[in-house]
Amino acid sequence: MRQLIIARKDLNMSPGKLAAQVSHASLAFLTKRFQNPKNVDRVCRNGNEVLYYIPYIQLDKDVYEKWICGIFTKTICEAKNKNQLEKAITIANELGLKEDIDYFLIKDCCLTELTPEEVDENGIGRVLTCIGFKPLPDEIAHKISKKFQLYK
User: Fold this and answer.
1) Is 42's pLDDT higher than 70?
2) What is the pTM of this model?
3) Would strands 149-150 and 74-79 be described as parallel, antiparallel, or unpaired?
């Protein structure tokens, strides 16, 4: 099992920005689930004040046993530009992978160093920086990553 992340090279992100975007991509397969209220079994309250949440997450057996309890193997590849990154999305879809379940598009809010390429439904400028996949069997990850080089 490995987690594949593909980041855009043409954005010339600083090392810190790149690290942040790749971190977002790595965590997205977990955090996306936590953001869904259906996955919060109960909310503990003191009066009207929320003290904490207890989220529920269901993971595939292999993801839990071989990745979460394993060595967190990750492969970080580079896409030359947005078009090449979008090719990864096409490959993922052709393999039957689903957006927001198996892969996650990371779009920066452009509050620091990046320039917006699009405006979201809330009027916030965003730029697609990378795609993060949930941990996948090596043979599936390699079908995608073989089209990309390791990030340098």
Assistant:
1) no
2) 0.91
3) antiparallel
